[in-house]
Design a protein that fits this description.
about 65% strand; seven-stranded antiparallel sheet; about 0% helix; three-stranded antiparallel sheet; mainly beta; disordered N terminus; globular
Length: about 130
């Protein structure tokens, strides 16, 4: 009891995306941005007209010098506004950034806002789990 075994798979596997059925997806991404305290940097952007994800859960990891941070953020959007909550935040020795989401134009964006005293080239990696 409590165990479900998948017998079929529908969707497509792309280099860094997994789509299961037509309503759930998993994607990965990463890159760098130059951290400027208080200045948001876009980590992930999707067009709500074509990828109208209703709920998105991100797991994000940052590295800046000897600072590391990992956390989750849950986002929901309705095409006009984004609502989010950060949780499971871990950092050592310093927190690098806070995460948030906005709808700007026709795009929903996950943004990282560097903390006071944090600046420089920052590496990020993320996993995005979505529900249509």
């Amino acid at each position: 009891t409590g165990i479900v075994t998948a017998t079929t798979f529908s969707g497509a596997i792309v280099t860094d995306d997994l789509t299961v059925g037509s309503s759930v997806g998993i994607g990965t991404s990463g890159g760098v941005f130059t951290a400027v305290p208080g200045a948001p940097a876009d980590l992930d952007v999707f067009a709500v007209a074509t990828d109208d994800f209703k709920t998105i859960e991100y797991t994000v990891h940052f590295t800046l010098g000897n600072n590391i941070q990992a956390q989750k953020v849950l986002v929901m959007q309705n095409g006009s506004n984004a609502y989010y909550t950060e949780y499971a935040i871990m950092s050592n020795p310093n927190k690098i950034a806070s995460l948030g989401a906005i709808v700007s134009g026709s795009n929903c964006k996950l943004q990282a806002t560097p903390e006071s005293g944090i600046s420089g080239v920052t590496t990020f990696r993320l996993v995005r789990q979505t529900i249509l």
